[in-house]
């Protein structure tokens, strides 16, 4: 079996490499010359643990190829996956579908036989049917079906998520049962290697599959915003948010995941998808107040973190040196999209702080997004040198191993604001540091 993957970005590259690992021949189409050149040379343009080895082994085996010719990739493919970007549209937060629509037109012109056109990109409800309309208008004689197959990959653990998923959701045109059955047979073959695992292949209608991705991410975002509000309440009442989260998470109806307090969620999915779902609900004239409030709460939390840091410094960071540990929105990725570090560091710089920062993999991506005066350090301890306050923004594991005594020795004023709760409060205070965390006494 051979498939085509239109888009060599995060979703397309990870999905393509994992499908190739299943034994499928995968042609990845990437039109960005710089990214395509890197992929052909074996250089991975994104950071994802294990992805470089997976791409290298499958490229060497001939199962994974990269090119910019859609016609060549699509010809004879049993399934064509659309994995192009759907960034928020300026002004209203709705997903911008120009790249999806362009891909649909190009696929239509390239089809040589029956194929299932599968949307991997996160798209609003109705997009799959719109893709079908575009293809029919471009090539009335084309033989194809459409499907929606949203991805649920977490950056930093994407390969494991793809190879060992808890579910695979596939939406089909259930208004045309015979065609849906034909498309289902193809996609069952694509995902056949998962048959021996415990993964559930859930077949739904097109609209349900498209909405499920937005609903899932928005629900998880709400969990994060909820535990952040509980962390604030814990601070007021002298409670411990970690013990509270454990007590909540042991309830199987709630679960343990996404109950870690912090400076607010970021990344490529939650901010974009909550905004998009709000827009979808507005256009459907169906109130989505919980999602809208989640967006507002998260933005307010990010904005308020700079104030928390200033308060720890006596009310002002003017003329003070702020050391920052971590810049990316989460560990194990170089993704800076919607990272809490962006608004926080800009506010600190505007307030007159000198900023020193270190991130294990994200500094190149961070530089265009952060204030010009940020000093980028070679390691975590260098960040602490002569710092008035040390701030933890990303919970990289290498930071957890830092010695409190060494931190105290290097700092000018031993104030630590741990917005990810990675350090032991007792150990930090025993080293003579003034330590603040989130939602803990």
Automatic annotation (TrEMBL):
Query: Which pathway does the protein contribute to?
Result: Nucleotide-sugar biosynthesis; UDP-alpha-D-glucuronate biosynthesis; UDP-alpha-D-glucuronate from UDP-alpha-D-glucose: step 1/1
> Which residue intervals define the domain UDP-glucose/GDP-mannose dehydrogenase C-terminal in the entry?
323-425
The active site annotation covers 269 (nucleophile)
Binding, NAD(+): 35, 86, 122, 155, 272, 337
A Gene Ontology molecular function term for this protein is: NAD binding
Q: What is its EC number?
A: 1.1.1.22
Please give the catalytic activity noted in the UniProt record. Answer: UDP-alpha-D-glucose + 2 NAD(+) + H2O = UDP-alpha-D-glucuronate + 2 NADH + 3 H(+)
Has UniProt tagged this entry with the keyword Methyltransferase?
A: no
What is the official name of this protein in its record?
UDP-glucose 6-dehydrogenase
């Amino acid at each position: 079996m051979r498939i085509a993957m239109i888009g060599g970005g995060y979703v397309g590259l990870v999905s393509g490499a994992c499908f190739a690992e299943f034994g499928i021949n995968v042609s990845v189409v990437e039109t960005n010359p710089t990214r395509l050149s890197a992929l052909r040379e074996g250089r991975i343009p994104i950071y994802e643990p294990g992805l470089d080895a997976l791409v290298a082994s499958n490229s060497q085996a001939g199962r994974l190829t990269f090119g910019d010719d859609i016609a060549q990739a699509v010809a004879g493919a049993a399934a064509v996956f659309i994995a192009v970007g759907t960034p928020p549209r300026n002004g209203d937060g709705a997903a911008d579908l120009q790249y999806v629509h362009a891909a649909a037109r190009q696929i239509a012109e390239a089809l040589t036989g029956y194929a299932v056109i599968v949307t991997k990109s996160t798209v609003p409800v109705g997009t799959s049917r719109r893709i079908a309309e575009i293809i029919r208008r471009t090539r009335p004689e084309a033989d194809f079906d459409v499907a929606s197959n949203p991805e649920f990959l977490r950056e930093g653990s994407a390969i494991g998520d793809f190879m060992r998923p808890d579910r695979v959701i596939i939406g089909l045109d259930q208004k045309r049962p015979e065609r849906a059955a034909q498309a289902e047979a193809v996609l069952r073959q694509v995902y056949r290697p998962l048959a021996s695992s415990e993964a559930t292949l859930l077949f739904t209608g097109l609209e349900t599959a498209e909405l499920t991705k937005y609903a899932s991410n928005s629900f998880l975002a709400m969990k994060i915003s909820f535990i952040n509000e509980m962390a604030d309440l814990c601070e007021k009442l002298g409670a411990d948010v970690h013990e509270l989260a454990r007590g909540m998470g042991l309830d199987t109806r709630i679960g343990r995941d996404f109950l870690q307090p912090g400076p607010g969620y970021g990344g490529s999915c939650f901010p974009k998808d909550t905004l998009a779902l709000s827009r979808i609900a507005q256009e459907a004239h169906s109130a989505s107040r919980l999602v809208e409030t989640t967006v507002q709460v998260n933005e307010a939390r990010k904005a308020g973190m700079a104030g928390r840091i200033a308060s720890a410094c006596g009310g002002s960071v003017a003329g003070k040196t702020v050391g920052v540990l971590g810049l990316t929105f989460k560990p194990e990725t170089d993704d800076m999209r919607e990272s809490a570090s962006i608004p926080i560091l800009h506010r600190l710089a505007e307030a007159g702080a000198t900023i020193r920062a270190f991130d294990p993999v994200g500094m190149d991506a961070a530089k265009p997004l952060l204030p010009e005066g940020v000093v980028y350090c070679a390691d975590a301890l260098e960040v602490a040198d002569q710092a008035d306050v040390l701030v933890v923004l990303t919970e990289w594991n290498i930071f957890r191993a830092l010695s409190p005594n060494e931190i105290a020795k290097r700092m000018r004023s031993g104030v630590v604001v741990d917005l990810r709760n990675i350090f032991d409060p007792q150990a930090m205070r025993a080293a003579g540091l003034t330590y603040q965390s989130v939602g803990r006494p």
